[in-house]
Each structure stands twice: as structure tokens, then as C-alpha cells.
Amino acid sequence: MEAKREIIFDRLVYSCVFEKQRGYEEFYPDHFLGFQLSGETHVFHDQGSTVIRENTVVLVKKNQLIRTIKYPSKSGEYKFLSITLDEETLQQYALENKIVVKNGYEGKQQLFFEPNDFLHSYFISLAPYINKTKEATPRLADLKIREAIELLLQSNPDFKYILFDFTQPYKINLEEFMNHNYMFNVPVESFAKLTGRSVSAFKRDFSKTFNCAPKQWLREKRLEEAYYLIKHKQQKPADFYLDLGFENLSHFYSSFKRKFGLTTSEMK
User: Fold this and answer.
1) Given a cut of 90, is residue 268 above it in pLDDT?
2) Which CATH number fits domain 174-267: 3.40.50.2000, 3.20.20.70, 1.10.10.60, 1.10.357.10?
3) pTM: predicted TM-score of the whole model, two decimal places
């Protein structure tokens, strides 16, 4: 059976898979709140990896690059709910409740925590909309998003520094960022946004920093890492080519031969 990814209402997505599934890179421009109903999700990000286990709530800050692997439970089910906390809704909520945040959140970028009774009950209350026994109207969707915000703030008041920080990303160190995130196969536009730049400014700064275009540098960087993994770690290309941002094996093999003048098998 194929995996399902279904939008319950415009900001709530229900994901269900029936076998181990490797997710592609995703760029999250908005905060999102998620709940692991069954199975577990292995999340890979620039700071390492995290496992989201069953009955765990996850709050992820906006502007993140994430790759996932989804593992069904012993019963064969994988179920995950995610709710987008979009900036427009958060700004309106902050205005109505006179919330002003001057300093951003200084903790870790990824936040994983066990749900309290209220948050757990909240996600369980969404079951009728997943099962199609109730219809999620736009007004109800808005109320459920606001309820999620209320419950998050109740569970940890410091979350206001995450949710209501509306400052634009500032320019960050381009060389450091790219060396930590080169393996994510996302458009240049996403890299630009994450580093606090317009696309034109990103390309200009990139050229000054690396003396080449972004796509050329990414290809070379990924191939050099592949060479290291094969030569010194004895890994097979089939085991890592996706993790390094290559779309398929044939593309990897041809690029590798073109750069190093030999095939991966000739290296041994």
C-alpha cells in the first residue's frame, strides 16, 4: 500500500505510511507543531539527528531544513499530525493579546517534549477530522490553530519568544552555513532565505566567498564527501547518495567519473 499525506484543513496535515519511508528534504518557512500518533520519525537536521517517538509532541522553529525517515510501529502503522503555525495567525494573535517580544528565543532550534494532558487531549480531539466523521470548516480550523497556540503557551510561557518573533532572518556567516547544510537538496532560493539574503545577494556573496556559483560548489562539495566515504569509510554509493543530495544513482556515478576520472569500483 502507498503512503498517504492528507490535508485535513489548510494548516493541518495528516501523514500515514505502511512501510519504512525515506522523506525528501523539506524547507519549513513557518513554525509547526506535530504529534507522533504511532511509529516513529527519525529527523536529520544541521545540528545532528533526533528521534520523535510515539506520543511525543514536536515544535519546530520556522526556516528549517529537515530530512526524515518514517518507521511504522510493530502493528505496521505510522501516523503523524502536523499543524502549521503561520505568521499571519500568530501576528493576529499577538495583536489581540497585546504580546510584544523584543528578544528572540535563545535555546536549541529544534524542540521536542513530552505532551502534557492538555496537549495530548488536543491532538486526540482531531481524530474525528482524520476519520472523516466531522467536517473541518475554515472557522473551526482557525479555532483549532488558536487553541494549539494557547496550549503551547500554557505548557511553556517561554515559547512566546519563538512564536512571536517576527524579525526577518539576519545575514549569517555564509561559509559556515553552507558547510553545515550542503547535503540538503533544496533550491538556491531556500538557501538564500535561510541565510537572510535575497537570491541575487546570496549569489553575489556566494561568489565572493567560494569563487564559484552555488550549484557548482554544491556538486563539488558533495562529490568530495562521497570520495571520502568510499575511500576511507568503505561505504557504498547506494547507501549514501540520497543523503548527500544526489537525486539518483546514475547522476551520481556520471558526476563522480567526470570529476575524478575513475568509477567508484576502480577506487578499491
Assistant:
1) no
2) 1.10.10.60
3) 0.83
